[in-house]
Structure formats: structure tokens, C-alpha cells
Amino acid sequence: DAKTTQPPSMDCAEGRAANLPCNHSTISGNEYVYWYRQIHSQGPQYIIHGLKNNETNEMASLIITEDRKSSTLILPHATLRDTAVYYCIVRVVSGATNKLIFGTGTLLAVQP
Amino acid sequence: DTAVSQTPKYLVTQMGNDKSIKCEQNLGHDTMYWYKQDSKKFLKIMFSYNNKELIINETVPNRFSPKSPDKAHLNLHINSLELGDSAVYFCASSQEVGGVHFGPGTRLTVT
Question: Which of A33, B49, B59, B66 is the most exposed place for a label (fewest CB within 10 A)?
Fold first, then answer.
């Protein structure tokens, strides 16, 4: 699975959009981009995933560049409860296994 | 309506003891996992089961033995506990392309 690079930490004002970048320059054509977050002491929470096209769900939007070497997770209106470590993971979806390799992630601190 | 549940939430025990952590998912997923998060907060996969069959075993000491009585349950038994086993253990489940759903975690402290 390809390696990802994320900034260790970011701040965002409450109510503003939080844009979390991720570089995955060695991504392969069949690797998906997944985003998870972990709020202190809780289990990681799935947010969104995509292959080529931009994706949106009730939690966030995922923007993947045309060359697929980087992506941005957008939380449109950050709240204090969005303070968490956000993990960007790229992986091949291969049948029975869904092995996630977590890096160190980005600690997003939403400020009041 | 907890999707992935684990018991117990906290487990404090002495070195050398044997303990088990139970996990159940009600999502109808075929694949279940155990992940370990150490004191430095690194999350690492330990095991993966698909339809009760072991798929992934990530060089975990054989003191750790997962057991899957059916595809909704994956329990983790640990023999001869050591200080280094202290961590948070997360159970998870998934269905192919979709996201992996994690349980709330079990904080194991070995004294």
C-alpha cells in the first residue's frame, strides 16, 4: 500500500471550513483513498473514501487531484466536536481483506 | 444499536494472567479485525478473519489467539500477559469496499 504524508497538526476556527491535505504521490491506479478520524479515546471513525472522482457525504467532501497524487478532506463547517486526529490511508481493496495501515495523521484542533 | 461492541471496556490485570476480550458486530459484515493502539498512539492491525477463517496474522506473538465462533463474533484471548501488552485493543468489521467500522476499544493495563 502506498505511503501518505500529512501535516502533524492544524487549527481551524469553529464554523469555518477545515481543509486537511494528504500527499500520496506513489498511489497506484487501483488504490483507494480513505479518511478516518479518531476522537480522543474513541475507536477510529470512517469518514469517506474515493478512487478518482470527488466524493461527498453527510460528514465531509473528498477532493482528489486529477493525477491522484494528493487529496483534501473538507469539513464544511467545523465544530468543536470535530477536534480529532484525521488519518489519510491509501489501499487496494482486495476481496476479503481490508487491511488499514495507519500513519500518524493530522491533529485538527477546532478553536471556538 | 451499537454496530461493533466490545467487552470489557477496561481490563486491569497482573503479569502472567490469561484474559479474553469479546467482540460482536451486528452489521452483517463478513470480515472482522483486531487492532492494537500502543502508548504512542500508533494503530496497527493484528488479525483479520473472513467468514470465520483467519486471513491476516501480523507477526503477533502466539500468546494472542483470536477465535471466531461465527462471523458476527471475534474474541481475543491473551495468555501469560506481559507489561508490553498494555494498550487499547480495537475490534472492527467491514464489508469489501466500504469503510471499516471500529468498536469503542478495550483499554488493557498489565501491572
Answer: B59
